[in-house]
Design a protein that fits this description.
Elements: E1 2-12, H1 15-41, H2 55-61, H3 70-87, E2 117-119, E3 123-126, E4 130-143
Antiparallel strand pairs: 1-4, 2-3, 3-4
Helix pairs in contact: 1-3
């Protein structure tokens, strides 16, 4: 028998941190949607696919994107590359559909590499956002 642990975190950001989180969600959404747009434009009759802009190039194009963590944007870029790899994988048993655009009404989230946040007992230090209060709920799961 294996015992797995799962943690749920509830964060309590200040008003200023909420604004920064929403900006991060928006910028990550821009990176994803840009990649989806380029991916969906590709036609089988074309010989070459148009290259999408990198997160750095998008930050240069849209100055307001520099207000958020570059690591979050780069992570979303890597997530899309992983999606493309899975989409074109010949060994995949179940075919996945084309990517869809994200909007502000959908689930808002972003990921950071381990080096870009510090988890403490009752706070989490997020890059460009600061220390955010949190409450941890631990759950033990048993698998057979």
């Amino acid at each position: 028998m294996t015992i797995l642990k799962a943690f749920k975190y509830r964060i309590y950001p200040t008003k200023q941190q909420t604004v920064l989180l929403n900006k991060t969600f928006g910028c990550v959404r821009v990176v994803w949607n840009h990649n989806v747009k380029i991916f969906n434009k590709f036609d089988k009759n074309q010989t070459e696919q148009q290259q999408s802009l990198t997160s750095t190039q998008l930050k240069q194009k849209y100055e307001w994107m520099s207000e958020v963590s570059a690591a979050a944007l780069q992570q979303k870029e890597m997530d899309f590359k992983t999606f493309k790899k899975n989409y074109f994988s010949k060994s995949r048993k179940k075919k996945i559909g084309r990517p869809s655009f994200k909007n502000r009404d959908s689930n808002q989230s972003y990921r950071l590499p381990n080096q870009k946040f510090i988890l403490r007992e009752n706070t989490i230090q997020l890059e460009k956002i600061g220390k955010v209060k949190l409450v941890v709920r631990q759950r033990n799961c048993q698998s057979r």
